[in-house]
Amino acid sequence: MMRQAEFLTVLLVCASVAGVACGDIDNNDHFASRSIYDASGVDFLTVSGSIIGGSGALRPDTTLGVFDEFGVELADDDDGSILGDGMASGLYRVPVNADRSIRLAVSGYEDFDFDGMIDRSGGKPHKQAGDYDLYIDIRDAAGDLTGETFFFESALTRGAVDRFAPDTSSLSPQAASFDVYIDNVSPFILGADPVDFLSFTGLTPGDSFEAEIISGDFDTVLGRFDSAGGLIEFSDDVNRTSLLSKLSGTVPQDGELIFAISGFPDGGEDRFPFDGRHSERGAYELALNFNPEPATLMFLAWGLPVMLRRRTAR
Length: 314
What we know:
Number of strands: 18
Strand order of the largest sheet: 14-13-16-11-1-18
Radius of gyration: 24 Å
Structural class: mainly beta
Order of helices and strands: HEEEEEEEEEEEEEEEEEHE
Shape: elongated
Largest sheet: 6 strands, mixed
Helix content: under 10%
CATH topology of the largest domain: Jelly Rolls
Number of domains: 2
Distance between the termini: 32 Å
Strand content: 35-45%
Low-confidence stretches: 1-25, 294-307, 309-314
Mean pLDDT: 83
């Protein structure tokens, strides 16, 4: 009964200022800068926020070329990347050059000879522009990843060709081939708020919980993290008819639950989950329920919000 009494006290305090939003959140796009709330003695709470993904960013339709040590083109690709929105380029199991170099070029569709011009256009420059990320993963002779990687952040401009030659002098002797692919969806455009990381502390270890996005006007993804920032689990859609998300489980021994809200497809099946690479945007409301009791459910039916005490983010 003690927890129920504490719940009622918190609820009634908030009821006196009904209509106050419980945590309009921003500036928490990273795990390390997550918003932290003291939820001691609370059985139910809601937090509101919003997501603004990269839909306002320019997304270049890229082409990607691989060259040998003499500058001769070996292969090219248009839309083969495992990342991006379907118009990003990627090539896989490409042999490292005889001199151990890796030479690449990125241009815009339809430039496949990498001179900055649209092929067969009579000299018109390509029109693609926008931010993108370039990834290179090294493989050994057996085709296994060695753990060696290169990463470049760049921006394509109209009529331009970006060329890359990473410093491969420190590559291991096992390096035999590489995968190279582009993400053309920039996660952090100016003014964007693509992910919200939230932490709730002061909880009772062993208590059961349900975390559910109960309202949202976009395709949500909800993730739960451990204290080291590792993704424990994620939820995309509650069911076939809902684009909202829900997780349930047990409060860990440290009494802290850490969640992230993002937009599809930025979830656990993504190569880099919850890094903000999506184009969704909109408002949401996250509800957390701990060991609900009949009296708790009665108050939840009234739709009364819970006021939280916000602490300074760690």
